[in-house]
Amino acid sequence: IEALLGAGPLSGRHAIVTSGPTIEPIDPVRYIANRSTGRQGHAIAAALAELGARVTLVSGPVALADPPGCTVVRVESALQMLNEARAALPADIAVCAAAVADWTVVNRSTEKRKKKIGEPPPVLQLAPNPDILATLARAEADRPRLVIGFAAETEALLDNARDKRQRKGCDWILANSVAEGDDSSFGGADNTVHLLDGESVESWPRMSKREVGRRLAQRIAAALAE
Ligand code: CTP
Ligand code: CA
Q: Which residue numbers delimit the DNA/pantothenate metabolism flavoprotein C-terminal domain (predicted)?
């Protein structure tokens, strides 16, 4: 309701949110993907819109409904996601929740690869994808005031998350463990995250991804109001 009245704490703000996996084609029928469902990114986008923000959600392929009140831009590859995220600038807030494929297939084939009896299987040649979070965080002219990333780790969670924050130049990192058997691993409804802002670590209790989105949106609103 606040959002409808234009009276939410984030009204007048523009947020870019990336969500879901990206997929990297091997040939017209095959691709490299990952386990991201987009639930956390979509929940963040919805929560920011609830607080009155104008939200551009740049999403890889997901089986989720569009969050209410968001402009959804659908992409497949990491390069497309980067281009759409940049095209959506300027913004006050960027939240990179997508599980961006780290590598793209260089020797992608325009024809379906066929098995040939007696021949060895094809070898995929990979090249690194651009880093969307780092690109937004290091944008010179139009860097969003608050750039937030995730760190999905299977080990040394907080150390790796601190490193990632520094390396990418973002303001906050939400660290979550994706070790096998962990309750916050890919696909679940809940998440257990730690918010690192450079000085302190705030460990949030396990909660639904929707609640993580709401809590993060509140924190963003408070930070921008300062
Ligand atoms: N990210 C991104 N673009 C990439 C890779 C990652 O925007 N090409 C963002 C993710 O959306 C996330 C953060 O960077 O917010 C961390 O992603 P993660 O996969 O944990 O980190 P990487 O830097 O890719 O390192 P690694 O996968 O080797 O741990
Ligand atoms: Ca990665």
A: 10-222
